[in-house]
Amino acid sequence: MLILALRRLAILAVSVVVASVVVFFFMAVLPGDPAQVALGVNATPELVAQTRAEFGIDRPLLTQYLDWIGGVFAGDFGQSYVTREPIGPQLLDRLGVTMWLVGAGMAVAALIALPLGTVAAVWHRRPAGTALSGLSQLGVAVPAFLAGIILVQVFAVRLGWLPSGGWTPPNQDAGAFLSGLVLPALSLGLVQGAVLTRYVRSSVLDVLREDYLRTARSKGLRPYPALIRHGLRNAAVPVVTVLGLQLATLLVGAVVVERVFVLPGLGSMLLDSVASRDLLAVQGIVLVLVVGVLLVNFLVDLLYAVVDPRLRGS
User: Fold this and answer.
1) What CATH class is the domain 93-290?
2) What is the mean pLDDT of residues 24-51?
3) What residue ranges are annotated as transmembrane (predicted)?
4) Domain regions of the chain by residue span
């Protein structure tokens, strides 16, 4: 297990370095001059050259990359081209909001999908199982932002039970924090839960057809105890893969949901930075999102070995 973890950690480190190179040089080749954008179209060439020197973008690309990545590893993402404020503290604050949203959305998806997917598989020849499969298929077709708009219309506008948007830090008012998190988490979790339900159903169906489960049944175990004791752990391996992919999808999907519910997360910061062409801020945000996806894949690889002991020996 330790060797597996060290090997995956080395792959993660290499992947992070490669990702940083790709992100930096992709941003470097985009058209437009950040100094010209920051100063406006009426700026003189001398002032533009001076501003480029202040930003450090008049140096060779390799020098710029080494300075930037060295600062990133030290927690310094540089200063915004637009506001001239440090990017790192803003990223940290916005990342906390996004993590709360993604974590809550993933919890909602798991709480929906694991029991419903299992029941849909066990009842796959019954009308109730068919109805659950149909509902999950319908949920797959609904985008997260549309689910958010519908939830706001029902629970915020008509019923008035929950706020339609905004953010309150948990250390200021726990009640307002939770009430403001419910609708965004549901809009993410319901859609991803529908997707996950399909995979859980398929995985449990495959397990139900296995010989070892028939043997457990023939020895006197009832269907549900046999499935819980012998089947769910084997069904969990492909589900863990999908969970990792969905967690990465939630990180990206949170960009739109944050905009719908006016949440000050990474997604809102990314859209604002793109609109103002603050390329250094965009560069930092994209790197954080990419590293987040890589970390999710790393944790999923480790979770495989926890769920399936056969992978530890291999």
Assistant:
1) mainly alpha
2) 73
3) 9-30, 99-123, 135-156, 176-200, 235-261, 281-307
4) 93-290
- Whether 283 and 19 have beta carbons less than 8 Å apart is answered as no
For 113, what's the count of Cα atoms within 13 Å in the CB-facing half-sphere?
A: 32
pLDDT tens readout for residues 225-258: 666 666 666 666 677 777 777 777 777 777 778 8
